[in-house]
Amino acid sequence: MSNYVLVIDTNKQPLEPCLPTIAKKLLKGGKAAVYRQYPFTIILKKSVNVLEVKPGQLKLDPGSRTTGIAILQDNKLIWAAQLSHRGQQIKDDLESRRSLRRGRRGRKTRYRKPRFLNRTRNKGWLPPSCEHRVLTTMTWVKKLIKLCPIQSIATELVKFEHQLLDNSEISGVEYQQGTLYQYEVREYLLEKFNRTCAYCGVKNVPMEVEHIKPKSKGVLIAFLI
């Protein structure tokens, strides 16, 4: 399904989105012009009564890497997009800057008075990667409100605790480690030893990982499956 085309009148008032075929006819007939490439928006060359416009709903599905954005009209999807965030890139840039600054300690440069003790964070401070995610989403929300009649905005704020769904009494270290604790390490070691005990060569038994002998004896772990 292709997105509808966003439409505004000559006074830049948002109107109901139209089908791409209708937008193509308006552009060919000289009744409209391209206002913005993305989101693709056309502007009419006449004013329209805004009271006759049917409003829509803006839906947001936030995520750490991408955020889903959709516009619905009477439960009908008319426009959708996926917003990619640069959180990991921002984190890498900050870590690179930190390493460069720390490199000054080993160079012969002028003395700089330490400033780490007088740095304070304002109330409501967010990590730069999270702040970027919030600001980028807000920028697109404001942009779509100007280009499309929006009556309401809804965002998904549901958090799923899969461990609590499986076991409501889980707590403490068991909750922190989770069901996949050391799973990758175990699988790697089992493949390395061909799924065979490192000592007796037994197979087809339940997997166990334990210290059979102390590290001072030169033996660390036995792997059984």
Helix content: 25-40%
The largest β sheet comes out as:
4 strands, mixed
Number of domains: 3
Strand content: 15-25%
Which structural category fits the helices and strands? alpha+beta
Element pattern in H and E? EEHEEEEEHHEHHHEE
Give the tally of β-strands.
10
Distance between the termini: 50 Å
Mean pLDDT: 80
Question: How would you describe this structure in keywords?
Answer:
four-stranded mixed β-sheet, alpha+beta, disordered C terminus, 29% helix, 225 residues, 6 helices, single chain, 24% strand, 10 strands, 3 domains, Nucleotidyltransferase, domain 5
Notes on the structure:
By secondary structure, the chain is an alpha+beta fold. The chain has helices spanning about 20-30, 85-100, 130-145, 160-165, 170-175, 185-190; strands spanning about 5-10, 15-20, 30-35, 40-45, 55-60, 65-75, 75-85, 150-155, 210, 220-225. Strands 2-1-4-3 form a four-stranded mixed sheet, with helices on both faces. A four-stranded mixed sheet has the order 7-6-5-8, covered by helices on one side. A two-stranded antiparallel ribbon has the order 9-10. The longest helix has 20 residues, at about 130-145. It is extended and about 85 Å long.
